[in-house]
Prior knowledge:
Two copies of one chain form a homodimer. Chain A is an alpha/beta fold. In chain A, 47% of the residues lie in helices and 17% in strands. Chain A is built from 37 helices and 34 strands. Chain A has an eight-stranded mixed beta sheet with strand order 15-25-24-17-18-19-20-16. The first copy, chain A, has an eight-stranded parallel β-barrel with strand order 27-28-29-30-31-32-33-34, surrounded by seven helices. In chain A, helix 21 packs parallel to helix 24 (589-613), helix 25 (635-647) packs antiparallel against helix 26 (650-663) and helix 36 (867-875) packs across helix 37. The longest helix of chain A is centred in the last third of the chain and has 27 residues, at 888-914. Chain A is globular and about 100 Å long. Chain A starts with a strand and ends with a helix.
Amino acid sequence: MAKYLYFFGGGRAEGDGKMKDVLGGKGAGLAEMTNAGLPVPPGFTISTEVCRLWMRSGRQTPAEVDIEMRQYLERLEALQGQKLGAGENPLLVSVRSGAKFSMPGMMDTILNLGLNDASVEALARRSRNPRFAYDSYRRLIQMFGNVVLEIEKKEFDRVFDAKKKQRRVQLDTELRAEDLKQIIAEYKKLVKKHSGRDFPQDAYLQLQMARDAVFRSWFNERAYHYRRMNNISDDLGTAANVQAMVFGNLGETSGTGVGFTRNPATGVKAFYGEFLMNAQGEDVVAGIRTPVPISELKMLMPAVYEQLRQITTRLERHYRDVQDFEFTIQEGKLYMLQTRNGKRTGRAALQIAMDMTAEGLITRDEAIFRVDAGQIYELLFPRFDPKTLAKAEPIAAGLPASPGAAVGQAVFTAAAAVEWVEKKRGPVVLVRGETTPEDIHGMEVAAGILTSRGGMTSHAAVVTRGMGKCCIAGASGIQVDEPGRRLVIGKQVLKEGDWLSLDGSSGKVYAGQLATVPADPNDPMLLEFMSWAEPFRKLGVRANADIPRDARAARSFGAEGIGLCRTEHMFFGEGKIEHMRAMILAKDEKERRAALKRLLPLQRRDFLGIFEAMDGLPVTIRTLDPPLHEFLPAREQIMVDLEKLASASGAAKRKLAGELRKRYADYGVRDAAGLRKLLARVEDLHEFNPMLGLRGCRLGILYPEITEMQARAIFEAAVALARKGKQVHPEIMIPLVGTPKELELQKEIVNRVAGEVLSQAGIKLDYLVGTMIELPRAALAAGEIAAQAQFFSFGTNDLTQTTYGFSRDDIGKILPVYLKTGVLKQDPFATIDQEGVGKLVRMGVESGRKTRPELKVGICGEHGGDPASVEFFHRAGLNYVSCSPYRVLTARLAAAQAAAAEALSEKAAEAGRTR
Amino acid sequence: MAKYLYFFGGGRAEGDGKMKDVLGGKGAGLAEMTNAGLPVPPGFTISTEVCRLWMRSGRQTPAEVDIEMRQYLERLEALQGQKLGAGENPLLVSVRSGAKFSMPGMMDTILNLGLNDASVEALARRSRNPRFAYDSYRRLIQMFGNVVLEIEKKEFDRVFDAKKKQRRVQLDTELRAEDLKQIIAEYKKLVKKHSGRDFPQDAYLQLQMARDAVFRSWFNERAYHYRRMNNISDDLGTAANVQAMVFGNLGETSGTGVGFTRNPATGVKAFYGEFLMNAQGEDVVAGIRTPVPISELKMLMPAVYEQLRQITTRLERHYRDVQDFEFTIQEGKLYMLQTRNGKRTGRAALQIAMDMTAEGLITRDEAIFRVDAGQIYELLFPRFDPKTLAKAEPIAAGLPASPGAAVGQAVFTAAAAVEWVEKKRGPVVLVRGETTPEDIHGMEVAAGILTSRGGMTSHAAVVTRGMGKCCIAGASGIQVDEPGRRLVIGKQVLKEGDWLSLDGSSGKVYAGQLATVPADPNDPMLLEFMSWAEPFRKLGVRANADIPRDARAARSFGAEGIGLCRTEHMFFGEGKIEHMRAMILAKDEKERRAALKRLLPLQRRDFLGIFEAMDGLPVTIRTLDPPLHEFLPAREQIMVDLEKLASASGAAKRKLAGELRKRYADYGVRDAAGLRKLLARVEDLHEFNPMLGLRGCRLGILYPEITEMQARAIFEAAVALARKGKQVHPEIMIPLVGTPKELELQKEIVNRVAGEVLSQAGIKLDYLVGTMIELPRAALAAGEIAAQAQFFSFGTNDLTQTTYGFSRDDIGKILPVYLKTGVLKQDPFATIDQEGVGKLVRMGVESGRKTRPELKVGICGEHGGDPASVEFFHRAGLNYVSCSPYRVLTARLAAAQAAAAEALSEKAAEAGRTR
């Protein structure tokens, strides 16, 4: 028979800390702490395997698990000398979720399980604290009703608040036992009404139902969403931990708290935590009451504080990483309820990795992996300009829960945050009294988070640190009026849409938009850390940049060249777009050439700037790529305008005509006839599927004069700089190639123009002509294409579109359903699809190099800045990845980690062989 | 040194009939006839290799070729005892194109080359026929001026017609030598004016220029277009044949003609041809004068006729195929100028193959290949209903140049034909005095061709027979007024757009639209022929059919099942589209289910009909595939209508509102607010790239209730028929799958519904659930997908779109340029791209079968009816192809030929080994 449950207690545990797969993170931590002799309330873990069985059996827990669970409960009862929810000293338990990968606050928990109408009386008698007993029972019914029976929380709140109102009290703690008894009676009615059954008095039935509800919470909306954000598979499932209750709410010598062995926001080595006396755990994490810094515990209970420090220091040594722990003090006695490796910001990860190496706790080779490549780019986040900051007057201050600088417009609900961002109304700051797991969508899109309640370990703080997002928590001077959509600070009132600036490093809140400056990429600690990792790296890292400013930024972040310079972006600028439009609207080649002639000097200037910024490094320039109608007004807009013009008369018509002349001035439209002509041309360029239409090299083949002009601009700029002694290495890249002939035709033009310009200038210049591989056919015919190409650059955005048949612009409706139904494990535009698109990449590299062994192969596109994808490209043997400037550091570290992991595992294997 | 030229003459030739690659078809024929001792004017062939050199050298013929050509000319002069364009007996030559694959009339020819101001006098003296000499000279200047110097033909015509007018004559032959001399003087001025140089008097220079002009004509528009239509590579180039002139225009004992050894329209074994006395070859082929049936030659010159019969019969025996020959009679002496395998209609090909087998000229195994699979479907062309035909009164009659029944609206220029068809104004009949090679675009799109001049071997006749298109030529009773866009038959006048019906088998022309009936697929000759070919066939052939009528037709043509039944086509019918629209516009699942419920019985009825028609054979049904907005009105139309409504007022507004209510009645729109709501929904469904959007199985995954309804309709229909004792084999096919999970999810629905319907009915029914492989990712992940699929069907249309990144709807602008520049050798949507898309097909088959060896694999899509593609699918090891009903016969023959070629070459190889 399979083993489904694992006991811990009495100084011994059946599992251990390595068994996260089976026990989940929490269960493994409890087992390890128990084995280490730490004070942990005993209990047992129902393994993740049970959850998976439950999923596969149509959400039913198999009977054999129940048999085993009954045995384990009896063992727990024997150890404690209690009976679950029975007798004069009833056993109460908590039932908590705990998955392999920590998902803080995403799943459900039930406390005080085992209470019923009889045991609550026993508890009251035994604790000599009836208020505590009834409060615990009322909490159970509320949690059970909400989590297990799925009754809305607000139904319970309504009853509770009505009682407070009736009793004219402010705080929960002001309610007396008698009041709580009445509330319990009301709660039971609620349960009966909404679930059609009585609140279960059978404690074992409570346990069964709670266990299954914990499993079910694996699939709740926010857990699901969290897994998507963190690339966690839906198949893993959660474990459930059943543990004897200890009570932090037994009075003033009881309490509960959470903490970190080092500061998770900054990484500073300082014991760090918060607690609340006379409270249950949920009160701290949920951010409902603002907790007290752990230093105060030293004053209140020095012995407990000392014990806690010793235990957690031991845990950090044991796990060789920062610990995030939970504890409860019951009537002066300390219990450990959880320990796990702590989540931290990128900045903290770096600091901790460096410190722990210095302390000899970990080696340099280990330290390399202690900073998440996906997080390190936070170090390059802009900060507020110190000069501006010096003059600015904060309007409020809170806890610096997660560092960074956020500037955005105030919104007061997660839904509003999502809406503002979807409607592209600019960045937002989400302002909440406290955040709850339901807010996760809004938090994800917000530039920063500001809360008026909650501490450094509150939901808002923990989640934003994980996201690398700025957060100020517990800014107690402010009053958040969510329904009124406003924020009151003293006499000052800020409404929805008002700008706020948050300094997550100082905890200061400013009104308006404060200026930011780029981060310093030469941070000495970062440089040292990278100097450990980089020697492993085999993959080159370039940046995608279209303007000199981005190129310079990329270079400062360590980019070894430009992997993609999109020339079309240059055409959008003022003073250029009209020539571009004239080029598109040209009747014939002659008109088109005239417009191109006007574009040439402008384009040359663009290239001059980029080449200068990248002096000595290669710059890959892609020839014109997008469908031309992107530069023209929308077809339906012209149609409607024409219709308006036709219907209007008199003065209204003259006014409208004037407006339209202005609107369409760039297109040389002077009257209705001109507008109709424009419409005809726009119709002519209209395509049903522009992504699969006249774009990429197809433009250059239909209109060779465009490629000609671009090549001329490139080489004239290169010549001008070469004369000044600069080193220019242009790599001209032809987009959307599907056949060798396309590349050949475009290459001919480039080489001809290069020959003309260079021989006229009398200058020798090395340059390459290569191609994007962004169509499945290009990957399939890579062998033949390589005969024409000096380099390949995989355009994995387009390649993903065509391989999957997914338009990036249209996937919005499909993706959420596809992720939810498990069709896709992740957004294939964020992380490369190794089985499909990746297969084409491997085929393309292999057959390209077969034809031309020295072929340089890179990838440009979003995937170049995604650590998992970078790891894949490393394995696929690419020469470089190219990503957006701010992802360069991420790509460098991810590439180094991929190579280091490979090198270290080879070394280990070798050591194994020689031993 | 490479050999560039090949001599023929004096009973011996350097080349032979097998050297079509080098000599072109014409050159090879001339060599073969010379070797056989037939009367062929001597000359030499400039090989296709020279043309290719000319292409590669920037359209310059290398000097070494010129050196060799001078030697060959001297050899010809020696043999003839003449000098090119010099002396008292000047040698005149023709320079004719001749490519490997015959391209009748597409390239250029120059006759009478060698004439100049001196030699024309010598010719006049020697022939004692000054009129003949000056006529020849004026023809040379005209042809040379047009072909070599690129002066428009109408410039020469103007001079010529002015002279006729001045001389008040009707016929060219009525002009006297003196008139022709004056014309020559005018022509020379024309040449000087337009080309800036004098007409070259140096005969060798004439020859060089003419040769290069022939090479150039390989690239003219019509030749280019012809190659595209016939899949001939642009790289081949043409040979040029230089041959001593013989003159058919030397008087009444001279003449020229063309013929076939059997009737190329019907295949009947009858000597068949036409000639003109006192004429040059171009006069016959160009259709300018209507020639005389060859039987009349028997009366005029019995000995020549007898000799011609003997020679051509010998040629047919020699080549073992129908010969298409050209001859000239010079003063009573017969010369053969060309022989080649004759082009023929599908009907004729069949007849000839059967006859030649019966005659013992070829074997059955050879006969199989004598009918072009791409042509045989002509045998299934509808014919006019005999009952209607019996009562109909023809308005005119001409030569039955190419059989078939054509119904269309009269148009009088090729451009008009193209325009009408592009604007989807229905089928057209192209009516011309005579067709010229410039008309080829219009001929291609016309349903049939009617000419008032020209014979059975005129341009119109030859080209239409090649196209398998109905043609009536030389309908002499009619008068075509091209500029006036009308057709005059006696007193009757037909204008552009008037309907005509052509019976290509009888040569009769009818006014109006005559009813047609389908062809008889049980033609005994066809059945016998197919009984020779079919035993070889390994590939199954199914049809794409969405309605019972098409299914029945397909079955009668030998389809072995339905390979693709597109369910969306069914929704477009009256009484269905409104429920479909309601389904799409539904606010929520409930509304959607209500609309689907109304669709269910209608869809069930559709399936009933198809299943019944295919009783005993498998029917593959594809679930809903297209983007939903295809069922809704265009977004911009609603926008414009809303704008109109907003601008209108008073009575006009009420009227418009009424119109719009009617127009949008199907969508439940009653007022402007309703229209705005409709627009909002249409906007919501709007996609940037619908081809890559919400379609295929994505619909069924987002709205499982759609798949559910379709599955229910399928199984309920199947059950109803099973109860009646019919054999139903549904194969449910899920479209646009990219991952195994998509198929799994949809299969679950199908299996669940099937289980419900079948168990309720108490009926057992075998069915399959499989998938389209139409995305590159599906082909790449075929191994995993096969675990879920009982069959694959390659959707090569979509697969071509995504592999190439070409939208079928948008390729129109790109394709012509891509074909012209050689990027594409052929339209990848017509013939499968073996190097790209084909590679995915092979990968998909291989990895699919690795997972599931018994996997059934088919292909549905346009490629299923294309012979070259069918051959590829045979080699790729597919189980079946599925094509449109009228291509079933083509697919069957192509599949049989592919297998037969393989089997026969294996047999030959084995015979070789055992010998």
